[in-house]
Amino acid sequence: MDLDDYSVYSQLSDEELLQIAVERSLSEGLAPSEPSTTFSSPPATFPPPRLPQASSCVNSPTAMSNFPYRALRREFSPLQTLIMNGEADALMDFVRQGSSSLTEPSDEGRIALHEAACYGQLQCVSVLVTAFPDSVNRCTLKSESALLLAAGQGNLSCVDFLLKHGADPNIANKERETPLFIACEQLNDAIVDLLLRGGAQVNRSNTQGASALHEACRNGQLKICRMLLESGALLQTKDIYGIQPFFSAAQHGYTDIIQLLAKKGADVNGQAADGASPLFEASKNGHVSAVEVLLSLKVDANRSMKSGLLPLHVAVQNNHFRIVSLLISVTSMVRVRHSGISPLHIAAEKNRGEIMDLLIKSGFEVNSELSEACSIIYKDRRSTALYFSVYNMNLEIAEMLLEAGADPNLDVFNPLLIAVRLGRIDMATLLLRYGANANAQIPTQSSSFPAAILLRMESLPMLKLLLDNGCDARCCFDCPYGQKTHLDVQPSRCPIEEMQFCEAISCLTLCHVAGPIISLLLDYVGHVRLCSRLIEVLESQSNWAPIKLKAVPPHPLMQLCRLEIRRLLGVQRLKLLHTLPLPVRLVRFLHYDVTTHLPEVTCDGYI
């Protein structure tokens, strides 16, 4: 048996499934006891029960036709059969015979009248009410009256008849849903009209606190809303979530209902229990027209959630560009600062490039930082929009922020270190071009040399990029042990508080590539001495012997001159050398872009 299509009906009760099966078999002209292999569509007088809302369901309800009927077979009594078929004359025979089965409840507490009302068999309803007038308000075990069942299935004629014969329109089921609420849920304005004229109480609420007006607004039923308001429906009724009917209309983007309720005096700024306003909900759900109408009603665009988020925040989060453009001009920058998070942070985190450009052009501060309460949510304690963009490796947004003046060195954990650790030379180049600190340290990992070297020293292109942009190579050779024997202990247990370069380079994961790394670092330093650990590493491979000689004086004068010129100029001025009337070869020499007569060592360790 292929039960894939059954998933749509997984939340229905056995009784509801059986009803669907029986009705579909009857519509094919089959007797209830006859087996069938497929279902056809149910008869028009008996729509199937309401299905649960399941956005992830991949099968449509019509796929139920493939489900084997034998799994749902049930024997029906003659009485049930004739009611379902609308055989009023046969039912009258039962009445004449004084059959007790007409008023005996089933396991669910349903009597014959309930069945007739549910199936919309008006003549059968008439026979039963006439014969048993006291049964008109009897309820099932779920407190469902015949009137509620008829209203729930949209059986207008049965509703009319029951009301005229004493049915109470205010008997509610166990969820405290009255026939009026059910009719609003089923979008049946004719039944709503009958119930209101029949004395239905318009402001009754269900167990969730929702009124009939809530339900009509949620379903966008303008005509029903008018009918309810004319009958005295209250606009300020709140459900258990603090939601008013106007909020529901805005939440679902029904502009005509928004305007109607506003004219009737609805609170256009009424907030839910979590602080969400009607504008916040319309903005969140992307209802552009509703946002435009709300703004024309002069709603407060700066009503925030209890979390501090404003409508602008949620519009950015959900990528509603048009709504963002509408909200920018009416959003207070002061309120944005008080929220603890800028829309720029959200745009960067969600990779909203188009919105980011709009926000920057609208004057939002690119260096605004998360509040402590917001920053603490993240383990890395990020604080800037730039950090979010670098973390996402979004080069476009990062460049957008940097061009607008974002400071790459504000975060506790420097964004450059992320780019270096991930091996993204393009992002690292961008950050260094705008002044990222190549000597930044990791707050939780103290080392005597730049953290960027520690994170990616095995990548020579990345290491050279860092060194060209001011990364301090000299401190890699400042070992407190010097020529003395190093303690053979784990760095974390070393009596020296900071991790040393020689300790890092001699670990198992790097010792096989240590030679080229040390060679490159020596090109960016003058007079240094290799400690005993580094000498030991270089002597581990015979082809690294020339590298050890690079640290032995005397050093070439050109090398010393280059280092001194670079020191005097500084990193930022070095970046501007190409704008000066200097020989190209000299500029390239200062940038390590040309080969000179100096003894150079290749990545393989050979001169």
Description:
There is one protein chain. The protein is an all-alpha fold and 607 residues long. The protein has a domain of 153 residues. The protein contains 33 helices and no strands. The N terminus and C terminus are likely disordered.
List keywords for this structure.
607 residues; mainly alpha; elongated; disordered C terminus
Rg estimate, integer Å? 39 Å
Strand content: under 5%
Task: Let me know the average pLDDT.
Answer: 85
Q: Give the uncertain stretches in residue-range form.
A: 1-9, 28-74, 491-496, 596-607
Q: Give the class from helix and strand content and strand pairing.
A: mainly alpha
Assembly level? single chain
Number of helices: 33
Number of strands: 0
* Anisotropy-based shape: elongated
The N- and C-terminal alpha carbons lie at a distance of 75 Å
Largest sheet: none
In short:
With 607 residues, the chain is mostly helical.
Secondary structure blueprint with pairings:
Blueprint: H1 14-27, H2 78-84, H3 88-96, H4 112-119, H5 122-131, H6 146-152, H7 156-164, H8 179-185, H9 189-197, H10 212-218, H11 222-230, H12 245-251, H13 255-263, H14 278-284, H15 288-296, H16 311-317, H17 321-328, H18 333-339, H19 343-349, H20 353-361, H21 372-375, H22 385-391, H23 395-403, H24 415-421, H25 425-433, H26 451-456, H27 460-468, H28 501-505, H29 514-522, H30 532-538, H31 545-550, H32 557-574, H33 584-590
Helix pairs in contact: 2-4, 3-5, 4-5, 4-6, 5-7, 6-7, 6-8, 7-9, 8-9, 8-10, 9-11, 10-11, 10-12, 12-13, 12-14, 14-15, 14-16, 16-17, 17-20, 19-20, 19-22, 20-23, 22-23, 22-24, 23-25, 24-25, 25-27, 27-29
